[in-house]
UniProtKB/TrEMBL annotation:
This protein's name: Leucine-rich PPR motif-containing protein, mitochondrial
GO biological process: regulation of mitochondrial translation
Gene Ontology CC annotations of this record: mitochondrion; nucleus
Ranges occupied by PPR repeats: 157-191, 192-226
Disordered: region residues: 1245-1270
GO molecular function, one term: mRNA 3'-UTR binding
Lineage per the UniProt record: Eukaryota, Metazoa, Spiralia, Lophotrochozoa, Mollusca
InterPro entries per record: LRP130 (IPR033490), PPR_rpt (IPR002885), TPR-like_helical_dom_sf (IPR011990)
Listed SUPFAM superfamilies: TPR-like (SSF48452)
Length: 1270
């Protein structure tokens, strides 16, 4: 088995990992190693932006800048900076004070109306995460932050106090247990086991064993669990009390009570002995601990203490220990910073040197990256840095990059100068961050000096030079107040007059637009550049201005003066034009632009293919298709100026998307007849076949595929579609599944056609799950290998490797296991192999081997490992694994504890899942937001109150898509507005309408000055959900007209548009209930433009019954409005006057878009009127066929939920009559349907045809979070 513990260092996968760039970003930025070349690769420009952050003025990407600036003024900026801080603390276990200060400043702006987890994050940052500060300085930050919490009224619970005590211990700050307990009692808080553990640790740090023992006795009396950490504290306490023998005796007590004497226990003892300068005792304990697994950070702690105490005789032994470990955790890597800060450069160098030679390449990257970062952070002497980094065979220039990250351009330039002096090439892009940072520092002299260095670089070509001038130098000078004339003068002094002319013009384009750029270039000669230098600026400005005329003129300048091929510019213009008109549903501008410029535009075939033309009028698509050229140099001839092949393929694809088989066939036949040599329509052919099969015409599908293959067999073979094209494989599998549903008798022939024609390899159509149940224990070794080889050959990695690894772990056959690994490496990911090894070693009783692989791989294996434990129902082994990995880095530890929560949730043990949160506290590990959200969901499902604040979903600028609002989102919003009634938070949690209205009545009785905003504030808190509707229903039932008006007229707390629209309808409904016809008439007359917001089917029905004249007036008002605002009237017609509905749709077909089909389907069921549903289906067939599937599936689901299975079966038959498959319904809907029929001992149509397969969904209530890992 010895070979296996070296697995991570010996498998080829690890040896193949490239040595990537070292330490590019303290902010977790990882990029590829810089390539020394004569050009600036595009990714290097992005690297520079990562290095300098928003300091870089990147006019070539104005949308990025605008996005970033706008987020600073919104809550998104808070979410971004706090989320970044969270990522750093969890992933890198460190944070810069500048980052902490930025988040703290934002929190103060918001008066700390932020979530609890973010407050705790800030508090944790003031401990040992902030590597750059001394403990005393960190302690001051802690005290200052704690005072702010109290100043702004942050609700402090026992978790805050536990974290505070932890930070005090990390910073070596003494605290009074009595004072802390007094504060907690005043707030009604009870200490938990973590609190007592921290008290014991505090007393032990002072050497006060008597006080610590009293706390321990109290814990015993209260039956509070005592962890190993308590014993570690007593070891420290006895050594601080100068009683090393008692400290050693604690180890014996641990063994007696059944606790493992871990590396942490020996670390505590050794550190205590070093403090006592008992170096002989240190040697003895080190010998005793040889069989104990110690982590790298524990060994480095000993090195630091020994060096501080002037004893280095043991250093060599400890270096060797680190080398034998074969890995470094993040905590250990961070300790390198402390060593360098103390000036022990040689110690840090030796640690890195020894470990780099023993770890895998991935870990080498992490260690080197951070070491180079720490060298720059501590401004170590340049000559010493050069010597150490060269000895490690690393790139010295990466130290300069790190210095730029830390905003220290002087140190960075000194490093680069040292490299140049030693003959190491310094490419020009190494200096680019200096241009930005000197510009930010208003240091014009050094800015120009840096540009001169760049210009002298022998590896710089004209295109790169202009890129630098446009992206960095010109913006930096502009930021210093220089105008065009002065910039031209500076460039002349440097000798860059011609290049700067082009750069200024492009800078004007980026900042001012096409018109100003055209004016500037009118009397200038452009310096030759490449297309890539212009393209990003061109596209971004085009999307911002939609100035297609001037964009086309600028494109002409690029073509005429620079000789550039401008097909990409033309495509960008057409693409923006289409998008602009499509969004506004107005194609007049497109027609006008094409009328004026059609002859000047040319597109390459591939450019035409990438255009999204689905919703574009056919006439415009045809005109655009005429712009396609054959080879980029001449117009493509087309018979009689008819449609080209790309145009026909596009039109055919559009018809296929609309399920219009006849139209698609028309275009398809034209394509094959007119262009017999054209072959790039293989996906179109497959889609045609799928539509044929969907219509029950399997033989025609087979003939079509054979026809394509006979025409273009060499093309299919040349492209290697049978083995490599995943998109093609997906379409073939779709055809297979479609045939299984629609034409089961033809499945074999269809599959044979697909494979024999060369569309796909046979093995890619099937899976290997049938082999998962083979009992490998009964097979011979060679039989197992033959089966494994067969499965890899046929199915690649589409089977479970777990069973093969388990076979040889169980039987303890290391050579055979290594053979399995060697066979699996080419097809399985290294994470999959490592995770399966860890799990199998744990399951079969080899925890040390499992831990060795888990730690030495330095990969984030925890999620996959936990998934496997949970999937195979090994929760007890997962608990052992969690205990074994307590010293893992915080990121891995969070995933392991999260896995424990998921495991307990799967077996419905919610209490144990909640107890895991206490483990987080004990280890001072921050649970991720996803962990808390998941646990909250588990509690809610079990009907248990959530005992913690649920964090919001973070939307960062990198992911600004609007997400659906959740209760967590609403709680976050509540904390960020000035509430007049903070007790609303409690009301919101209860959701008790009666309680809310009682509070409202009390405010009215007291004549509270803010009573008028009470209900708007409630709705602001609640947002868009059923609770808001319950409140509005209550107001209608109790005829609270004034309260409804307070909601509609309120401006202090504008509620969501959906809730406000509902409130308008409820208001009219309430007036109808009160027979206030005059008031109704007044309201409707005063709101003619948005009268549709006040109407519903039921309101219109009652209006016609009570006041026919007013109904007629309302009807005429609605019909005179925009068609999109006729939805309520159209819905009324569909229910009560179908002839009028059809008449309206003939005149205003656009009005169909406003129908709320989901509501109409529900109304049809409630009214027990199936004809209503039939009318909706009929309308959808005519005007919006793509929504037909949605209508059917939703109505079936509504009927199933109501238990009306006969009606559901009737709708299924109608759905199949429209050639739609109910089996394609959303997974949840289909599951409910099958379960409902099974529970009533009934069969669905497809089950009666193919046997009862309902057992497939019988496990519908299984844990949806647990999926079988690949």
């Amino acid at each position: 088995m010895a070979a296996l513990v070296k697995f991570c260092r010996t498998v080829p996968v690890f040896r193949q990992i490239a040595r990537v760039n070292r330490g590019l970003s303290y902010l977790a930025t990882t990029t590829k190693k810089t390539v020394l070349s004569n050009t600036i690769p595009k990714h290097n420009l992005q690297v520079i932006r990562n290095v300098v952050g928003n300091a870089a003025v990147t006019e070539s990407e104005p949308r990025y800048q605008e996005s970033y600036k706008s987020t600073e003024k919104s809550e998104l900026y808070w979410e971004k900076v706090s989320h970044d801080l969270d990522v750093l603390t969890n992933g890198y276990e460190r944070v810069l004070k500048s980052q902490y200060d930025k988040v703290l400043a934002e929190a103060e702006k918001m008066e700390f109306k932020i979530s609890k987890d973010k407050c705790l994050l800030l508090l944790r940052c003031t401990g040992d995460l902030m590597l750059e500060l001394e403990p005393s300085a960190r302690a001051e930050l802690t005290d200052s932050l704690w005072a702010k919490f109290k100043q702004y009224g942050v609700e402090l619970d026992h978790v805050f106090y536990n974290v505070l005590l932890t930070i005090y211990l990390q910073n070596g700050r003494k605290f009074s247990t009595a004072e802390i307990l007094g504060e907690m009692q005043e707030k009604g808080l009870q200490p938990n086991r973590v609190t007592y553990q921290r008290f014991i640790a505090g007393y032990c740090q002072e050497g006060n064993i008597e006080a610590a023992t009293q706390i321990l006795d109290h814990m015993k009396n209260e039956n509070i669990p005592i962890s190993a950490g308590v014993f570690h504290s007593f070891i420290t306490g006895h050594t601080r009390a100068k009683d090393p023998e008692s400290a050693k005796n604690v180890l014996n007590i641990m063994r007696e009570v059944g606790l493992e004497v871990s590396g942490a226990a020996y670390e505590a003892l050794l550190c205590g002995l070093i403090e006592l300068k008992d170096f002989d005792g240190v040697r003895e304990v080190l010998k005793e601990a040889q069989g104990v697994s110690m982590s790298p950070n524990q060994v480095i702690s000993l090195l630091i203490l020994l060096t501080k105490n002037g004893y280095t005789d043991l250093n060599e032994e400890l270096y060797e220990m680190l080398g034998r470990m074969g890995f470094m955790n993040q905590t250990a890597i961070n300790q390198l910073n402390e060593i360098l800060a103390l000036g022990y450069d040689d110690v840090a160098h030796q640690i890195v040197y020894r470990t780099l030679n023993s770890v895998n390449p991935r870990q080498q990257h992490y260690i080197s990256r951070d070491f180079l970062l720490f060298l720059a952070a501590n401004n170590r002497p340049v000559d010493k840095v050069y010597e150490m980094v060269n000895d490690l065979k690393e790139d010295v220039r990466d130290v300069a990059k790190n210095a730029f990250i830390l905003d220290n351009p002087d140190y960075a330039c000194n490093i680069l100068q040292k490299c140049a002096d030693e003959g190491i090439p310094v490419p020009p892009h190494c200096y680019l961050p200096a241009l930005v940072q000197y510009g930010n520092q208003n240091n014009k002299e050094k800015l120009i000096e840096t540009m001169k260095k760049i210009k002298k670089s022998p590896s710089l070509d004209n295109t790169d030079l202009i890129n630098i001038l446009v992206t960095f130098f010109t913006p930096a000078l502009t930021s210093l107040g220089e105008n065009t004339e002065s910039i031209e003068k500076i460039s002349a002094e440097i000798g860059l007059s011609k290049e700067m002319g082009t750069a200024i013009g492009l800078h004007i384009l980026a900042t001012s637009g096409f018109a100003d750029a055209l004016q500037y270039f009118s009397d200038k000669a452009l310096h030759p550049i490449q297309l890539s230098s212009v393209q990003d600026i061109f596209v971004n400005k085009l999307q911002a201005e939609h100035d297609w005329e001037n964009a086309l003129k600028f494109s002409k300048i690029c073509r005429d003066q620079l000789g550039l091929q401008t097909f990409n510019f033309n495509r960008s213009i057409i693409r923006d034009l289409i998008h602009f008109c499509n969004v506004r549903s107005d194609w007049a501008k497109a027609e006008e632009f094409l009328d004026n410029n059609e002859t000047q535009l040319r597109l390459l075939p591939n450019g035409f293919r990438t255009l999204a033309l689905d919703n574009v009028p056919t006439s415009i698509v045809q005109r655009i298709s005429k712009m396609v050229v054959a080879d980029g140099l001449r117009d493509k001839s087309s018979p009689n100026s008819e449609d080209g092949e790309e145009m026909l393929r596009k039109m055919c694809d559009m018809a296929l998307k609309s399920n219009d088989l006849d139209k698609a066939l028309e275009y398809y036949n034209q394509l094959e007849d007119k262009y017999p040599e054209y072959a790039f329509y293989y996906l179109t052919a497959l889609n045609m076949a799928a539509l044929y099969i969907g219509n029950g015409r399997a033989q025609e599908a087979i003939d079509l595929l054979k026809n394509y293959a006979s025409r273009h067999s060499s093309y299919l073979k040349q492209r290697g579609f049978d083995t490599t094209n995943n998109n093609l494989a997906y379409r073939c599998r779709f055809i297979k599944n479609e045939a299984s549903r629609k034409c089961p008798e033809s499945v074999d022939e269809i599959l044979k056609t697909l494979t024999s024609c060369g569309f796909i390899n046979e093995n890619r159509l099937y899976d290997a799950h049938k082999y998962d149940m083979v009992d490998l224990d009964t097979q011979s070794d060679e039989g197992v290998f033959e089966l494994l080889e067969e499965m890899i050959t046929k199915y690649s990695n589409n089977f479970d490797i777990h069973h093969f690894i388990a076979r040889f772990v169980k039987s303890e056959q290391p050579d055979q296991l290594q053979r399995v690994i060697d066979m699996a490496i080419p097809v399985f990911t290294e994470d999959a192999i490592l995770s399966n090894l860890v799990v199998n070693f744990m399951i079969h009783g080899h925890p040390k081997k499992a831990l060795k692989i888990f730690e030495s791989s330095n990969r984030q294996l925890a999620p996959q490992v936990c998934d496997l434990f949970i999937f195979y129902d090994k929760l007890n082994v997962l608990e052992q694994f969690a205990e074994l990995t307590k010293d893992s880095d915080k990121k891995q530890r969070d995933e392991i504890l999260f896995g424990l929560i998921r495991g307990h949730a799967k077996v419905k043990s919610v209490k144990k899942a909640l107890d895991v949160l206490v483990q987080y506290e004990e280890e001072n590990t921050v649970p991720k937001d996803k962990t808390l959200r998941y646990l909250a969901k588990v509690c809610e499902t079990a009907g248990i109150d959530v005992p913690f604040e649920v964090p919001a979903i973070v939307n960062t600028p990198e992911n600004v898509n609007v997400r659906n609002e959740t209760r967590a989102d609403n709680r976050r919003k509540v904390t960020q507005i000035d509430l007049k009634f903070p007790e609303l938070l409690e009301l919101f949690k209860d959701g008790d309408v009666e309680k809310i209205m009682e509070a409202k009545a009390k405010l009215d009785a007291e004549q509270h000055e803010n009573a008028a905003v009470f209900l708007p504030e409630v709705l602001k808190v609640i947002g868009k959900n059923d609770k808001a509707h319950k409140i509005l229903t209550y107001l209608r039932n109790n005829q609270k007209v004034e309260d409804l008006l307070s909601i509609l007229n309120n401006t202090s707390y504008p509620v969501s548009q959906s809730v406000k629209t509902t409130a308008k309808k409820v208001y009219i409904g309430t007036l109808q209930d009160m027979s206030e016809n005059a008031k109704i008439e007044e309201v409707l007359d005063n709101n003619k433009d948005d009268i549709h917001d006040y109407l519903s089917v039921n309101i219109l029905k009652k209006l016609k019954e009570d006041n026919p004249d007013l109904f007629s007036r309302v009807e005429s008002i609605v019909l005179s409005n925009d068609p999109s605002k006729m939805n309520s009237l159209l819905a009324y017609y569909i229910v009560y006057d179908y002839d009028k509905a059809k008449e309206l749709l003939q005149k205003q077909p656009e009005s169909v878009a406003g129908i709320k089909k989901k509501s109409m389907a529900s109304l049809a069921r409630i009214e027990k009127k199936e004809e209503i549903f039939d009318r909706i289906v009929d309308i959808t067939r005519q005007f919006n066929k793509t929504s037909l599937f949605y209508i059917y599936s939703h109505y079936i689901d509504v009927l199933v939920k109501a238990g009306e299975l006969d009606a559901a079966l009737n709708v299924i038959k109608k759905m199949e009559g429209d050639k739609l498959s109910p089996q394609d319904m959303h997974e949840g809907m289909l599951n409910r349907l099958e379960v409902a029929f099974k529970e009533n001992n009934r069969l669905l149509p497809w089950q009666s045809n193919a046997g009862d397969t309902s057992s497939d969904s019988s496990d519908s209530d299984s844990d949806s979070d647990v999926k079988k890992p690949k």
